[in-house]
Amino acid sequence: MKKEFWLERWEREETGFHQNDFNPYLRQYWQDLHLAAGKAVFVPLCGKSLDMLWLRDQGHPVLGVELSAIAVQAFFSENGYNPQHETSGKFDRCEADGIRILCGDFFDLGKDDVKNVAAVYDRASLIALPPEMRERYVRHLVNILPPATQILLVTVDYPQAEMQGPPFSVSSDEVEALYRDHAEVRILAQLDVLEQNQRFRDRGLTRLRENIHLLTLR
Fold it and tell me: 44 falls in which pLDDT band (50, 70, 90)?
């Protein structure tokens, strides 16, 4: 899957993955991280997610990374911000009111970019990637994050043959396989949600589960 795929999705406003409210799992399970106020949170492939506002309101500086400039501009404008802009290395940095978004390629991030991060919120990153990119994503993420970083990870699990991703199906077994050499993996919840998701039933799914994981890097 090439960068152009996501850039074109934003250009065409094909953003069904965007949620118009805070994610309920974030609000329910964030407390399991026991993260002190003032600790920074990283949101990879953040789009224009409102969850960044929620995290900031819990007292956390928020760092996002997003490929699409359209998404970055939309986040700040739709929430009434006039961000400061700065070009730094391979990224255009936009920042306002405790939220900083680096516009550029996730794989260009280095350790210095995330050196102050204590936690990661991943609702739409891992499931946005096909299998061959998921291994690369995890390898890069764990290589740049500080030790003991916690990750709240939400995935969807369904029969992959029934629907073309994204979002792609990522089972808890796959999460374990991807992260077990780098982190302690804990399943917080596994929820059957097909009945509540008409658009996925319309796409032919016969089973849909959302899994919430808490990972702690070694």
Answer: very high
* Measured distance CA(127)–CA(109) in Å, rounded: 20
Distance CA 46, CA 35 (A): 20
141 has a pLDDT exceeding 70: yes
Give which of 146, 214, 216, 151 is closest to 184, Cα–Cα: 216
Contacts of 106 (CB under 8 A, 6+ apart): 44, 45, 65, 67, 125, 137, 140
pLDDT score of 54? 98
Q: How far is CA 6 from the centre of its chain?
A: 14
d(CA 85, CA 101): 10
**CATH of the domain spanning 3-14+25-217:** 3.40.50.150
Where are the domains positioned within the chain? 3-14+25-217
